[in-house]
Design brief:
Radius of gyration: 22 Å
Number of helices: 12
Helix content: 55-70%
Number of strands: 7
CATH topology of the largest domain: Aminoglycoside 3'-phosphotransferase, Chain: A, domain 2
Strand content: 5-15%
CATH superfamily of the largest domain: Aminoglycoside phosphotransferase (APH), C-terminal lobe
CATH architecture of the largest domain: Alpha-Beta Complex
Number of domains: 2
Strand order of the largest sheet: 2-1-3
CATH class of the largest domain: Alpha Beta
Shape: globular
Largest sheet: 3 strands, antiparallel
Length: 299
């Protein structure tokens, strides 16, 4: 009886109705199969059995739905390969080729130009506000410099940004293209897309590559970005100027710095010394790329 009551109590605390959870799980599988078809097997129910215990794929009532995946060896993930120094140009080229094919067939997104530019401005302002209030003097100084540079670029080069939108380069992408989500096997595989926010998946293909390049750079692999960018241009015949890549890297690093510093608002704060250091790492990249934008505008 105690086990049955415990099961019922746990069921009553589930945050979503099973039907909604099933829809979410099925959407996660559908979206992630675009870049990892063999990894995402399907969805299975979490069932409440007659004895009051939970089972995966049992015969009882479905109370939740889970995504079933193939486990990928951690030693082949890009972040692990970078940490070991076990990566060659062929690996990066294969990844760029896989992503270029993905972007060529990804759903094109039509966004109002005002909304598109407004999203970029909002990211800058939200990042600036969070870092100004949560960081120390050094972070605040770097934040001011990056915010001014990025907002100036959005204002003065909106023609470039809108040409990307008009030209169909804004697609429904992955949304969270980080090294720890990339498996480098015989065929590169990318898992864990940002399935719960469609608007954050809709971005310029070059913006997504710049985000990956920025994340690789933060962990010490600065040469990944240029290889990705060159290979992407070769495979797609899309030739955005280098300043666009710099802008996307800068704004991505600025946003990630914001997300790092916001961890200090959690209660309790886990590992409080980690987050200012992480924010500073991202701001170093954002500052360097902003300097490139500013120096380019003066030449």
């Amino acid at each position: 009886m105690a086990a049955r009551l415990e099961g019922v109590n746990r069921l009553s605390r589930l945050p979503f109705a099973p039907a909604a959870r099933r829809r979410n799980a099925e959407a996660e599988v559908r979206l992630n199969r675009r870049l990892a078809a063999a990894v995402y097997v399907g969805v299975v129910p979490l069932t409440l059995e007659r004895g009051g215990d939970f089972a995966i794929g049992g015969k009882g009532c479905a109370v939740d739905w889970l995504v079933k995946m193939i486990r990928l060896p951690a030693s082949h993930m890009l972040d692990d390969r970078l940490a070991r120094g076990d990566l060659c140009h062929a690996d990066v080229n294969a990844l760029a080729d896989r992503l270029a094919r993905f972007y060529a067939t990804a759903r094109r997104v039509h966004v109002c130009p005002t909304i598109y530019l407004g999203r970029l401005r909002a990211e800058c302002r939200s990042s600036s506000t969070a870092l100004q209030s949560g960081g120390g003097p050094a972070l605040q100084h770097a934040t001011q410099y990056v915010a001014r540079g990025l907002e100036t670029f959005i204002l003065c080069r909106k023609d470039l940004l809108l040409r990307r939108l008009d030209g169909g380069q804004v697609v429904e992408g992955h949304g969270d293209l980080r090294p720890e989500h990339i498996y480098l096997g015989p065929e590169p595989v990318v898992i864990d897309c940002l399935e719960f926010r469609a608007d954050l998946r809709c971005l310029d293909a070059v913006e997504e590559l710049a985000f990956l390049a920025m994340e690789c750079e933060r962990i010490g692999a600065r040469d990944i970005g240029p290889i990705l960018f060159r290979r992407y241009r070769l495979r797609t015949r899309d030739f955005p100027p280098p300043e666009l890549f710099a802008f996307y890297k800068a704004i991505a690093a600025f946003v990630r710095a914001r997300l790092a510093i916001l961890h200090l608002q959690e209660f309790p704060v886990r590992n409080p010394a980690k987050w200012p250091k992480r924010a500073a790492e991202y701001l170093v990249i954002a500052t360097r790329e902003t300097q490139r934008l500013i120096s380019g505008s003066r030449t």
